[in-house]
Amino acid sequence: MLSRSAQGVYWMARYLARAGYLSRLLELQVQFLVDRSVEEIHFGWKRIYQCMRRFPPPGEQFLPEADEFALADAFTLADDLTFERSNPDSVWSAIASGRENARQMRHCISGEMWTCLNAAWLRIRDLEAVDIWRTPEVFYARTRSEIHNFVGVADATMYRGAAWRFMRLGRAIERAQLAVSLLLAQIELSRQTERRTLGWASMLRTHHALEAYGRVHGIEMKPDRVLDLLVADPSLPGSVLATVQAAAAELEGLGGGPGVDADAAARRLAGRAEALILYDWPEASEPEELLERVSQSARDLHEAVLGAFVDYAIEDSPLR
Amino acid sequence: MDFSLYDFDPAIYDEMFVAEGEPREHCRAVVEALRKLPDDDLNTIQDRVTRSFSQEGITFTVYGDEEAEERIIPIDCVPRLLALAEWRELEAGLVQRIRTLNLFLADVYGDCRIVKDGAIPADVILGCPQYRLAMRGVSVPNDVWVTICGTDIVRTHEGFLVLEDNLRVPSGVSYMIANRKAVKAGLRLLYRRSRVQDVEQYGSLLRQTLCELSPGGRPDPCLALLTPGTYNSAFYEHMFLAHEIGAELVEGQDLLVNDGFVYMRTTSGLRRVDVIYRRVDDDFLDPLVFREDSLLGVPGLMNAFKRGNVALANAPGTGVADDKSVYAYVPDMVRYYLGEEPLLQNVETRLCRRPEDLEYTLDNLERLVVKRVGESGGYGMLVGPHSTPEERDEYAKTLRADPADFISQPTLALSRSPCLVDGHAEPRHVDLRPFVLTGNETRIVPGAFCRVALRRGSLVVNSSQGGGGKDLWVVDL
Fold first, then answer.
1. Quick check: B465 pLDDT over 90?
2. Subunit contact B57:A2, Cβ cutoff 8 A
3. Order of all β-strands in the sheet with B248-250
């Protein structure tokens, strides 16, 4: 497969996974606006911004000591995360970038995938926050569902070649990074509050894990159990372990790249992240520190994949 | 569909009607069926056709002052019909013409017999900016210089006329196929009854043709389609064709030349490329030979090509044969190379490089279409009857400054075909661009990208200038 095409498909999947994840976060957050306490709402916004490594739009400048999340209203924050064109990670931008990568790589994906994604894009292309604000949760749920639909259509129609592997690899790496990032934000923010359980239930809902938690641990909400489930349960599709294992499986399926060492290095990184969770997590006294290491491995894995299959030195490459 | 207000004009050839209210023989059944279709149905079909283009992202890119915009080519759902017998006649003319043009190219980059024999002046060829000195003495696989040609054909009461031979990187074939798909889905029963000739096999014919150029007959050659990139106005088509022919869609940055062979960077190493269907202009193909500031091309590509290690379709330098000055000589070329009378006629063309033609052109600006030799896409031209005296004065100054850069032609009454406008039928001017493929043999699918000037009275069919598309049905009725 052409390296640039692999890169395009990989990024397409990353952007769409980002758009889907953020839509889910916002879907729950705008639901909070209806019936949750101010503290909980602020907590939610902070967690999203921290996860996306972004600062909120500035509040009123003459109140420098004030909490910017209190000043900027929910509409402004949602707009910033959803439709802000200059925010490369907003839902709009991520779908635009995913769709643009798909447009350039249409010959690598199925026609059905393209039509499905293009229809989603045409729906949101000209929207503004004001257009969705009467029922924002409907918009986010639909956007998330369209991305799920895209993934399902890909599953049903895409040829299981290298493009398929790179697409799944991109999705797995993006989801691993986002999940770890959100968990780190949750751990840090919950330390700053007196309500120990604040935000943990919504962590489960974000990852569609509420039912699974109930089945495994019962109805009592215990943060360490939630953390365990979201990090180390291989049966939960959105857990960190499941996404890292998915990345490792795709790398295995891709087989050798042009240089023996480069793709082996990528596989080692994926294996290391998996081993950290499988063997070190159960006894970790500092979950944050271990999650930071997993996060670093996921970032390194991204670099290693591109280095092995896309930006490799041609001098070392065999001629075919 | 309501034809009662249809503005039939006997002075202009009508593709569907031979006289007021009287359809041509091969159009009779279709006109009857269209008449019976309720307006609502046709409007729905038209909406669906337009929407399908938008949903499938069948677009071309238009560059404005600030940013690029993806646009769809508006398509009219009423097909233009051509009888199979007419098509056969046209096809024979196209085959004759492409044989001639390939012989001409081999000659002008070889012995230049045609110049030595005085059939065409040397300065017409050597003065042509598309003449590539780098191609002198180069031989090409199977002597095929032009693998893909998109010939612009118009029709008047005199018959089919060639308006332009597009021999460099002709585009539009993807719209031929997309129009067919959309219109066929809308007019299912009518399509079935009309025994329309298929065009969907274009991709496999193109693949077969390109494979025949494989250097040294290498089996199962690796094909690549070289695109200038996603910002090119025809990018959709590049992507579509790459998919159709099973080629990798590559940009210059994906290719490199090593020891006279072309390779592409793949996820499993460098893979040799045998045939490149290039959609990049000559100027940008190889910065070592052509424009050195080109970022779109591949350094060393021409070296690999000259050594016969990679085939390029079309070969560099083919632009000399579709130059607007050289065009005027094509009928003479047919006689010169084949000893046959041309089956397809040119539009009468005056070369302003000749003093008498310049004088005639200046005296008759209000009646003529004047074109720049090096421009295409409807740019840089003056349509006399639609111009103001001020525009003509201005144009005359430019014309006098560099006469060799201009040709003039009479303003043709391009044929018209019914279009759906506000729920009823109105005539609009049309042309057609069939695509001619040449490998071991010449192949033409029975269809064309039919362009239509959607603005009432307009003669400009170019998509960049407000033109649209129509499906062309070659019917066996």
1. no
2. no
3. B248-250, B223-226, B275-278, B311-313
